[in-house]
């Protein structure tokens, strides 16, 4: 039997199946719309206090950039199944560029994923050739749009143009032990790299990539230990200006450096040239203290945001380190976080949080004003 005769003899069956599929697709779209319309706003603090933080959305896969599937594609997927989605696996750091693209360093992919909402596309950075990434832990951009990625697997910093073309790299095992957090100052002149296992912040010139200076104790070397353990043994400390496994860095509008000193359970603040200014934080299990601080960012009012992987929350502090507000708890719901890591706040006061074990980036909006009344000692405990 040829194809023409087959369709002629089975026309009613084919027509019926098509109608059913179209109905299912339509119902699916309606049902999704109902779910979205029923989603209530998530805000912090709760009424009657005026809201200061509002949950906006989550970013997980290529579906979240807004690309719509055609009707024929949806019917095909209902019959044969959907092709595997490109989605976050184990994100660790997040940043947005001047075009609004969301750049995510993902150690599961061993790449940087670029979510482009304007063009409704998802690109992958660092796939092959000289620009291939091994284990990206941090990502940022400079005022010209260049993309900087700390690649712990190669003990280096990789630099790409705004279109993702590899330009050059610097560092190597003689310079870095395990580079993680990274930031470029607003003038685009200095690159600040957090070398976690060296317990230092290393500063480079943007144009020449020449090492300028380091922040943190520089100890002596001994022939009895290998290089990695050497730096851990000799460089770490707990005094002012010393670090114990720092992770992330943020730069304020005044050029000050805000660094998460993870295993000293504090945030340290420096001038852009490395002079110690202040610190706040201590180890504890109640709001205002830290247990596994990871990411850090600042909003337009100078409030300091710190993610804590152990608490699965975000804490907000005044510029002098007093707790204003905390939100989030362990879980997979819209209001929940699981081991949050990197943080970034863009010039529009949108906050991007790496919700690591939920494999997503959560987006919040800072609404301005004072985030909440300072908590009393009783409320903190």
Distance between the termini: 79 Å
Shape: globular
Residue share in β-strands:
35-45%
- Helix fraction, binned, reads 10-25%
> Uncertain segments of ≥5 residues (pLDDT<50)?
19-39, 373-381
The helix count comes to 5
The computed structural class is alpha+beta
Protein topology:
Blueprint: H1 3-9, H2 11-38, E1 43-44, E2 53-59, H3 71-80, E3 91-96, E4 102-106, E5 111-116, E6 121-125, E7 136-141, E8 147-151, E9 156-160, E10 166-171, E11 179-184, E12 190-195, E13 200-205, E14 211-215, H4 227-235, E15 246-251, E16 257-261, E17 266-270, E18 276-280, E19 293-298, E20 304-308, E21 313-317, E22 323-327, E23 340-345, E24 350-355, E25 360-366, H5 377-380
Antiparallel strand pairs: 1-2, 2-25, 3-4, 4-5, 5-6, 7-8, 8-9, 9-10, 11-12, 12-13, 13-14, 15-16, 16-17, 17-18, 19-20, 20-21, 21-22, 23-24, 24-25
Keywords:
381 residues, alpha+beta, four-stranded antiparallel sheet, 5 helices, globular, disordered C terminus
Description:
With 381 residues, the protein is α+β, with helices and mostly antiparallel strands. 15% of the residues lie in helices and 36% in strands. It contains five helices and 25 strands. The chain has a five-stranded antiparallel β-sheet, with no helix packed on it. It has a four-stranded antiparallel β-sheet with strand order 3-4-5-6, with no helix packed on it. The longest helix is centred in the first third of the chain and has 28 residues, at 11-38. It is globular and about 65 Å long. It starts with a helix and ends with a helix. Mean pLDDT is 86; it is low at 19-39 and 373-381.
